[in-house]
Specification:
mainly alpha, 66% helix, 129 residues, single chain, Four Helix Bundle (Hemerythrin (Met), subunit A)
């Protein structure tokens, strides 16, 4: 039997690993990867919080769907959730936008800072040190 707290920790630890990947990508000027890993960090953090609240996260990469499950318990920037959501697919499936995606440095920085904020907020809620 898996303890609920243990599963929350697994998801949140993976969110922090993904955030570190986003930071490394940004530092190496790989802005597409930074956007992708920022998305993954936010996704895993939201999933950890959904589990923390006693629910099961839906099988989706759609950050808006995940956030909708917890928005009564935490306040995040809806606009940035919506902006970041497509970057999971864009960075992995070039046919979606008919070519290799390009992410500007400022966009990557905005998403990285948002991911840091999300992990801070959720970390505080779940008692992550």
């Amino acid at each position: 039997m898996i303890l609920l707290r243990e599963e929350v920790n697994w998801w949140f630890k993976t969110a922090k690993i993904n955030l570190a990947r986003a930071k490394r990508s940004f530092e190496s000027s790989d802005y597409e990867e930074c956007a992708f890993w920022s998305h993954q960090a936010v996704e895993f953090a939201l999933e950890s919080f959904i589990i923390f609240l006693g629910d099961i996260p839906p099988k989706t990469h759609n950050l808006k769907r995940l956030y909708d499950k917890v928005k009564k318990d935490i306040k995040l920037n809806d606009q940035l959730i919506s902006e970041l959501t497509p970057y999971y697919s864009v960075s992995r499936y070039p046919d979606i936008f008919m070519g290799i995606p390009s992410v500007h440095r400022d966009t990557a920085k905005k998403f990285l800072e948002f991911a840091e904020e999300v992990l801070r907020i959720i970390g505080d809620k779940i008692g992550d040190k």
